[in-house]
Design brief:
Keywords: Signal. With 458 residues, this protein is mostly beta strands. 3% of the residues lie in helices and 52% in strands. The protein has a single domain (28-416, 447-457), classed as Porin, CATH 2.40.160.
Length: 458
């Protein structure tokens, strides 16, 4: 018996000595191969973005009916899991499940001065669920068709962002033009085609917008300013063309576009996109109900490339011009993961002005830019490196006397790239009040917000 045991131990030791102790650490993802080459596979990913925020609230803000000039809150900006894979050479599927904007007020979407019962346990949902078929492939060139619930979109790269690779703390949400109005957190029920033809990457889609009545909030009443219509629903058409001057970008998952590559690729793109929908909004003029078409388009340039490959330094930049044509007088306030539930100083003609909200969406024109610089690898030795950044948004909306100027400055501590990242961000936003001119808002003062985000992803 002792001889047998010794033989087993010696055999095990010999086998183990042939296995490199770093084999498991070389795996960069959770993947199950469906064929020997690994070209057919199923992959699983996870991301969690936790926010720790100190916010100077807008005037009149209340939290669960209590006055609050300042709040500190903890929340989950995004928690997501993805399951996707290449089943055959031509068949691809993609699903994503998770929740967004989960903090202590998340369970009170309809909260008022009396108090509306709700449920904090119902926030998670399917973001994406789709299938694709590749009709042609030659080298890096390909053409695919797909359909389902998808973020494949028009307008810009930030209308379909890869949230795990965002360079700034958050994306410019105005570019997700119909978010949670006639879509599901920027996703739409759509049929689409996407592909790479030479240096041109394209995506086009036809979407069936959700009725505004199903977004979980009371629809805005028909008034003199355009709001999303509750009748005469039409299909939505989206398109985006990207010209790749240098390398092409990753096209594995449908829609999602990388925020920054940390200089791992040499990318410079010029893009143009649009979203169009007939009778998307309506308004009241005298006794008549008038419908407006939604016509949104943008042109932009994106740059992400190494500066010194030996040191690992890199630069990332974006500049875009957006024409946002929702209809006469359209204006919508929004605040990411708003820490507040109400206000004692409402602004005429708009809702949701409490907490950290500002006029994020509106009819008019927007210029958005961002810039980041990745410092050398190993700057903090085994603790990674840093990437400072800044962003600026200037929105000239019809109903604002003064442009809406929003800026963010921050720094990413890249402990392990995007897999382990700590971001400190300061956001400064304008506050508006009713103007002496009817149906117009004028700038009053400015407020700020400090946010610390810890991101873990795999």
């Amino acid at each position: 018996m002792k001889k047998v045991l010794c033989l087993i131990l010696l055999t095990s030791s010999a086998v183990m000595s042939q296995v490199k102790p770093t084999d498991d650490n070389n795996k960069s993802d959770i993947r199950y191969s469906l064929n020997p080459s690994g070209s057919h596979y199923v992959k699983f990913t996870f991301i969690n973005q936790a926010w720790f925020r100190l916010n100077d609230n807008n005037p009149g803000t209340t939290v669960l009916t209590d006055p609050a000039s300042q709040t500190f809150d903890i929340g989950l900006r995004r928690t997501r899991i993805q399951l996707f894979g290449q089943i055959t050479d031509r068949i691809f599927f993609y699903t994503q499940f998770g929740l967004n904007n989960f903090n202590k007020t998340n369970g009170f979407p309809g909260y008022n001065t009396v108090g509306t019962p709700s449920n904090r346990k119902v926030g998670a949902f399917f973001h994406d669920a789709l299938g694709e078929y590749e009709v042609q492939r030659k080298g890096n060139n390909f053409i695919r068709f797909g359909g389902g619930l998808t973020i494949v979109n028009g307008l810009s790269r930030f209308s379909q962002p890869s949230i795990s690779t965002i360079m700034t703390l958050d994306v410019p949400i105005f570019a997700q033009a119909t978010v949670d109005q006639t879509d599901q957190f920027a996703r739409k029920l759509a049929i689409y085609s996407r592909g790479q033809v030479g240096k041109i990457n394209y995506r086009i889609s036809v979407a069936d917008p959700f009725p505004i009545e199903t977004n979980g909030a009371v629809p805005p009443s028909l008034n003199a300013n355009s709001v999303f219509a509750q009748k005469k629903h039409k299909k939505q058409f989206d398109g985006l063309l990207i010209y790749n001057i240098f390398e092409t970008e990753d096209n594995t998952t449908p829609g999602y576009m990388t925020g920054t590559y940390f200089g791992k690729r040499k990318i410079w793109n010029i893009e143009a996109g649009f979203i169009a929908q007939k009778n998307a909004t309506w308004r009241k003029e005298s006794v008549d109900t008038l419908y407006s078409n939604m016509n949104l388009w943008s042109v932009a340039s994106y740059l992400d490339m190494p500066l010194n490959k030996d040191k690992g330094t890199a630069v990332s930049a974006y500049l875009g011009y957006f024409h946002m044509g929702y209809g006469k007088g359209y204006l919508r306030y929004n605040g990411s993961m708003n820490p507040a539930t109400g206000t004692t100083l409402p602004i005429t003609g708009v809702s949701g002005t409490q907490g950290n909200a500002y006029p994020m969406f509106g009819t008019g024109n927007v210029i958005y830019s961002q810039f980041g610089y990745k410092l050398k690898d190993g700057l903090l030795r085994s603790h990674g490196t840093l990437m400072p950044y800044a962003s600026l948004q200037k929105s000239d909306y019809e109903r604002l006397r003064d442009p809406m100027i929003l800026y963010n400055v921050g720094v990413n501590w890249l402990m392990k790239g995007n897999n382990g990242k700590l971001t400190l961000n300061y956001e400064n936003r304008p506050i508006y009040k009713n103007s002496t001119i009817a149906n117009e808002l004028q700038k009053d003062l400015r407020k700020g917000s400090w946010i610390l985000q810890y991101q873990v992803s795999i």
